[in-house]
Amino acid sequence: MIMDWINEPLAGLQAQIHKQALERQGELTKPPGSLGDLEMMAVRLSAMQGVVKPSVDNAQIVVFAGDHGVTEEGVSAFPQVVTGEMIKNFSAGGAAISVLARQQGAEFEVVNVGTVVDLPALEHVVDATVMAGTANFAKQAAMTPAQLSAALQAGKAAAERAHGKDATIFIGGDMGIGNTSAATALSAWVLNDDANNHVGPGTGLDAEGVSHKGQVIAAALAKHATAMTSPLEALRHVGGLEIAALVGAYVRCAQLGVAILVDGFITTSAALIAAQIQPQISDWMFFSHASAEPGHQAMVNALHAKPILDLGMRLGEGSGAGVALSILKSACATHNQMATFAEAAVSEKSA
Hints:
By secondary structure, this protein is of the alpha/beta class. The chain has one domain (59-329): Nicotinate-nucleotide-dimethylbenzimidazole phosphoribosyltransferase (CobT), large domain (Rossmann fold). Helix content is 47%, strand content 9%. The chain contains 13 helices and six strands. It has helices at 15-27, 37-49, 81-92, 96-104, 145-164, 179-191, 207-224, 231-238, 241-256, 265-277, 296-302, 319-337, 341-344, and strands at residues 59-66, 107-114, 125-127, 169-175, 259-262, 285-287. It has a six-stranded parallel β-sheet with strand order 3-2-1-4-5-6, with helices on both faces. The longest helix has 20 residues, at 145-164.
């Protein structure tokens, strides 16, 4: 089948390098464990990259964008045209993630997997249009099998481009009015929970709007329950084009041995689905921040993950990951550049 690649084995972490990096941490001029999580971030990166001194300087940021038919149900505070308008803003360098990509010196691109408005050719934007936004999953499956396959393939191709540029870490971002509804539906399905326990304001719904959104999602999950027999079928029925592309990108990165920095609510729903397909994929993932969207914590818990930051962010785009990248850079810098006790002629702890 055309999607068989998604079940190919993941790259393995390098256990011997992990051991050597851990030993290096024990030799640096500091009490053991005194740099907290920074130490294990560097050691994990070493095992991923196969080098005792890892780096995240050559980061690749890819924002996947797509529209959602479920917005017909009044689940978003913004109109669908905003997705296309924001793609133009990304291209012009005016969005938060555009600014953060420049600050971090990261490679940046947008992959348009399907907006309701036609867009001209734009700088930094890859046209991988599958359809003009998903179908309304309150009424029918969001995608056909062929459309799902194409969206996954768009993510796979982005991961392969990153790998071809020797990216040291991959950051996936998202843009799509209505995509918190899709992410909520997916998380509720994976966790076998009531969607109302995961639903949030998204782009700024009031309490009444959040309640309505929860009802729409819960009804859609009930409608498609018997058809959603696998992670890919759940993704096809209630997911989004950009979420599917993120799933494809994450799986392919892990297959190619590229470290992944997951952003927030939308991208974590993609990570959750990817982990249902490839259970070991979390070995390749760092989680950047705790989203302010209510359902995020449950997804993070299910993935046994610990977000690096908690800043009350809920923008999406990859913005939380853009900020957390600085922390990973600090983890690498301290691991790589600190002197050992022997190099600095500093006495070690007494036996």
